[in-house]
Amino acid sequence: MSSLNILISGSGIAGSVFAFCLLRAYPDANITIVERDPSLRLTGASVDIRSSAVDIIKWMGVEPTIRKQTTNEKGLQFVNANGKPVATFEASGRSDMQSMTSEYEIFRGALASIFIDPIIDRVTTLFDESIDHFEQHEDGVFITFTKSKEVKKYDLLIAADGVRSKIRAAMLNTSPAEHILSKGVHVAYFTIKKDLLQGGQLAKWYNAPKRRGIFLRPDPDPAGRTRGNLMVITTDRELETRQKLDDAILQGNESYMKLMEEQFHDAGWLAPEVLHGMRQSDDFYCSLFGRVRAPKLQVGRVVLLGDAGYATPGIGTSLAIIGGYVLAGELLRHDGDVKMALKGYEDIMLPHVNSITMGEGPMQYLNPQTWWGISIRNAILGTVTGLKLDKVAMMAGSALGFTEKKVAMPDYPWPAER
Q1: How far apart are CA 140 and CA 289, in angstroms?
Q2: Residues 203-227: tens digit of each pLDDT
Q3: Could you report the per-residue pLDDT of 395-412, keeping only the tens digit for each?
Q4: Is residue 50 within 8 Å of residue 102, measured between CB atoms?
Q5: Nearest Cα to 183, choosing from 238, 229, 257, 228?
Q6: Which domains occur in the chain, in start order?
Q7: What is the pTM for the complete model shown?
Q8: Cβ-Cβ contacts under 8 Å for 109 (sequence gap 6 or more)
């Protein structure tokens, strides 16, 4: 295979895993990463690794490093307005059958560094730049960059530019919002410069009426910090509130922080401390916790990778890792034939992501509308954990051979690690 010339839009986990894997197969591959931010974005919320992604990080040789940098979270605890525990779901201690807390609970920035650091000197990075538009031809895709106005030809354009992918919109001739399926979950993420968990290793989940949630997670930093999430969940009957949240995200961080102060000022528990911590944070960002389901993952020499093609709350990071591995594997399996490789990638990933169903129900049940509903939920969760039914179910599943669903993929002919 002649050396492929590839452009990746986005320096996140999906693109980094792809570049890592492809360079193992083709050390001379010419890979450029274009990133609209002025530097690598190494912040973000806690993410986890499940299913086939666990096998992939072991194959990549980074699993020990990931384990060393996990958050050390030991489980998830639901609490009431007084901070009293009502239900505790402990980590399973297993990678093949994980609980609400993964065995690989790690902050996004740390994981992104683990993937990109080994290859950063082997790729070209263009920061503070983006793709204005592209034109496809039989022998390549011509990219016009936004700031430099430079036009360059590539064999393959990989859209790893997130949920609101502009490349997906151009590829499918739609708007960036066209294939985002909202479940009405809006989340603010930030680091609080104080240990609100007082050294505890259990994440805490608290709910106030109107489906407002405060989620605190431990931070391994010895200086004493807490990772905070503020969640607002809306139903299809609350479109006015949902639109207000959507608009605040688009208007920027200051707009969304003001809205969170309005939403949570009377929420109770640690809300005042969390809102103060939000204002003092250096890494605040907010997003819609939505799914992306594109009808196609590739057209010609353009392909969607990670959240741009199949964002999925809860397992999006795992799908990004799997997608990067599969795309590189298909290029190897088809000896660099771009069109055949992209078709093979789509045939593997699209049926899998389409088989993942996520209704609104779980988030509505876990985040009730009223105090009465919260009390009922707490009673149910308390009974489940008090009788250890969650552990019984996991043990039964293990005995019957049930594990997390994996992606069916070929046994790629990877060369020995060099």
Answers
A1: 35
A2: 999 999 999 999 999 888 767 889 9
A3: 433 333 334 578 888 999
A4: yes
A5: 238
A6: 5-41+110-180+292-354 (3.50.50.60), 71-104+183-289+363-386 (3.30.9.30)
A7: 0.86
A8: 41, 42, 43, 44
